[in-house]
Amino acid sequence: MGQIEWAMWANEQALAAGLSECGGQRGLGGLGDPRLGDAAGVLVCLLEYPRSKRQKGSTMERCGQKYLTAVVKLFGPLTRNYYIRAILHAALAVPAGFLLSTILGTVCLGIASGIYLLAAVRGEEWRPIEQKPRERPKMGDTMKQPPS
């Protein structure tokens, strides 16, 4: 059997957590302002929407991912390193754990943080999916020979 790529699972888990945190009743951990919870959820969604390129095989790109990939690439090692993502998700999960209305996002972020830590220990890091440049067809291949 092949090597499991843990970051792929953490990405899906964290994206679910970010979507769960957006639009919460009280916001992130009852910090008073629901906009803080929404902002944390949007931050997680923006960070996690672009999938990483798989080590082996092909990777299915999400719709519109190339635009957010450019943003994630802009921050370089801060977004590429899975240790940093694990710490970020764990830090966002702590205040969200104090309210029952945000417990689903908290659990998802905690699980994602643990999986990202495992992926980081195993040496994985985020790599952008880059489109291969299309080769121009050669003249001889596209032109048909006239009948003789």
Automatic annotation (TrEMBL):
Top-level taxon: Eukaryota
Alphabetized Pfam families for the sequence: Cytochrom_B558a
Region annotated Disordered, chain positions: 129-148
Main location as per UniProt: membrane
Biased composition (Basic and acidic residues): 129-141
Compartment annotation: Cell membrane
GO molecular function: heme binding
UniProt GO cellular component terms: plasma membrane
Cell membrane keyword on record: yes
Keyword Manganese in record: no
The entry's keywords: Cell membrane, Membrane, Transmembrane, Transmembrane helix
Transmembrane stretches, start-end: 86-119
Subunit structure of this chain's protein: Component of the phagocyte NADPH oxidase core complex/cytochrome b558 complex, composed of CYBB (heavy chain (beta)) and CYBA (light chain (alpha)). Component of the phagocyte NADPH oxidase complex composed of an obligatory core heterodimer formed by the membrane proteins CYBA and CYBB and the cytosolic regulatory subunits NCF1/p47-phox, NCF2/p67-phox, NCF4/p40-phox and the small GTPase RAC1 or RAC2. Interacts with NCF1 (via SH3 domain). Interacts with SH3PXD2A. Interacts with DUOX1, DUOX2 and TPO. Interacts with NOX4; this interaction mediates superoxide generation.
Family: Belongs to the p22phox family.
UniProt name for this protein: Cytochrome b-245 light chain
Organism: Pardalotus punctatus
Lineage of the organism: Eukaryota, Metazoa, Chordata, Craniata, Vertebrata
